[in-house]
Amino acid sequence: MTDTTATPFADRPLPGWYDDAKFGIFIHWGPYAVPCYAPVDDDMGELFAGGNWEAVFRSSPYTEWYLNSWAIEGSKTAAHHATTYGDRTYDSFVEEFRDRSRGVSMEPWADLFEAAGAKYVVPVTKHHDGFLMWRSDVPNPHRAGWMAERDHVGELAAAVRERGMRFGLYYSGGLDWTFNPPPIRDFMSMITNVPSTPEYGDYVLAHVDELVRRFQPSVLWNDIAWPFHLDPAETIGRYYDAVPDGVVNDRFNLVAVRAGTLHADFSTPEYSTTPHGDGKWEVCRGIGRSFGYNRMETEATMPSVDELVWMVADIVGRGGNLLLNVGPTADGQIPLAQVMRLTALGWWLRVNGDAIYGTRPRAADAGGSVVTTGDGREARITIGADGTTYAIVQGAPTDEVRLPVVVGEGAEVRMLGNDRALPHAVRDGELVVSLPDHFPAAPATAFAIGS
Question: What pTM was estimated for this model as a whole?
Fold first, then answer.
């Protein structure tokens, strides 16, 4: 067993705001939104689960990896680029993005995220192509003009915070293709692609320190890795000094975090709802199969509203958060298919949010949080800060719902969104709740059970 007593911040408690928030918005927006292409034949979660890393990179549905996918001979993205763009360079996409993004307003984005019920927002500040989404004092030493013309990050931070949401930042510390160009063909070549020169180390340290100083992000979301000659604990420590209730993810060094020699506030399963270990976890995924905007997406590549709502209920019911990504076009338009899903999720959360926000999963010794109703429906049991028990039942049950919940004398049961107490009884150790007639179809129905 690893001794964590010498691991910096190992005993640091998880800030309560993050465990309470449950749902955040991820934003991947950059020059890759100009070609906005990746094949959608495969779901990345299934590719990861298959363990074939060559297939992961060759068949990636992620448009933000366009530059890498294009560099892999024989990939669909390489064929698409040759047919559609010929000898056009990625530099030209950067110039087009700088021009098309110039007039975008962050206000409608923030309005949508608030309406969706998100409690925090995490935009990409630099992805693997190295392009900067803020007006940095530390420009790219290898590419002139490799940053946005406007401070999109600062403008979004102001709009998000004005609406009462927390603001975090994503930064690709592990990969920067302006320092080490692609292709990355497999897992080992991804590791060897991480720049580890003193020049790159100084560059990322200056960027992260600048981002923390300027924007005070509540979340510091690093990706892939950290330059191997640097100690990430030093950067994490400076961040905690600047933002005492901030949180960091596990991607500074996944191996060290899992070995217990590096602290992280949460782990980051990607396109998967299986947590890593026993600590706090946050699922990250796009609404479709890509993080960045992908023109190839269809209804068939996106979860339905019902699936999305249950995804939230399931993840929260098992102790996780969901960081759900939107991918705007180069002009800053969030696709209608994404807007519709976010709006519907927000309406469900507006009615049923008490069963989600600020809750914790029911403890194992009390029956656990993952249960099945008497008629075979999946259900999740959460506990509110005031001790109220919530049962989130998949779909819209009819006539009655039988729940493995123990209630005391005088307990009341209500359906969220209506203060009327529902008739109920205890039979064969189950709580049996009588329901009104003619429930409309619903992705999930939540009940409050309390004295």
Answer: 0.97
